[in-house]
Amino acid sequence: MRYGMTRILCMGMCLAALMGTGCSRKWVMDSQPPEAGLVWPQAPETPRIRHLGTITGFRERGVSLKSVFFGKGEDRLVNPVAVAAGGDGRIAVADTGTRRVHLYIPKEERYIGLFRSGSGEMMSPVGVAFDDELRLYVSDSFHEKVSVFDSGGNYLFSFERTRDGRLRRPTGLAYDRDRKTVFAVETASHRVHAFTQKGEPLASFGERGSGDGQFNFPTHIFRGPAGRIYVTDAMNFRVQIFDAAGKFISAFGHHGDGSGDFSMPKGVASDGEGVVYVVDTLFDNVQLFDEKGEFLLTLGNRGTGPGEFWLPSGIFIGGGDRLYVCDTYNRRVQIFEILKGGK
Fold first, then answer.
1. Percentage of residues in the chain with pLDDT exceeding 70?
2. Based on the structure, what is the number of domains in the chain?
């Protein structure tokens, strides 16, 4: 009995020592380093894009109280389809393979796996966006809603399908920091809806068709640095550009199998110089266009190495001229640097 009590006391002292060291759970990104000298285009042309590395998951580092008894935590990317970066460098990856959103905050070395929104579990998280207060918006196309989480990853509320049919199948998300507006693509109804940060409907634009401002199964959306809204009009094989109020500006793209053509366009983004980046899933690449829609450059090709893709989907351009691409079937997110002054 005395021996058993001694063991219990020793275990208690060890636990106290562990907790006294302040060993909270710290996480790092599982990543692969950049491929040295991997740029696009190749010399002798001036490079525009440089490969920075690859994210494959997140894992716990060091020793925590929980890891002593249950082992270190690890979460791998399985089917990443959308990615966004916040103003403080945090990233969120929507992963339909794990039915969760991977939220990582580098400054805090903190990882949060978001798999519940309210009382239920996520089923098909396909879109993510941060606002300027680092709230995270997540679209779940199966549950027909957009869920909102605070900067600490705590669930706040959801805005769901309305009586007039909004959010019947929400997909891509974007945030307009000037107007404090959340844009949600509704693929099933071929429209884009604008909401307040509280989920209150503001306006909508689009309808099914092939004319200016019309859509045929739109999927992805991006709010560019100049305030323009870029929408992937997937089955019209084009990208449409709108102002912040949803007024049509221009469009480019058509179906084909050559450079500058589209086969299955998905993610879209724009940088500070007005260059538009379009992911094409079936081409396994990212194509770059100028503001007029003229083809500039192809980033990547099919493969499993650095700078290669296998059925990519979402894309995002964040601070520090970082370009994030969901390399979906390679189960990773690749990161690139947009080089200023490239011509």
1. 89
2. 1
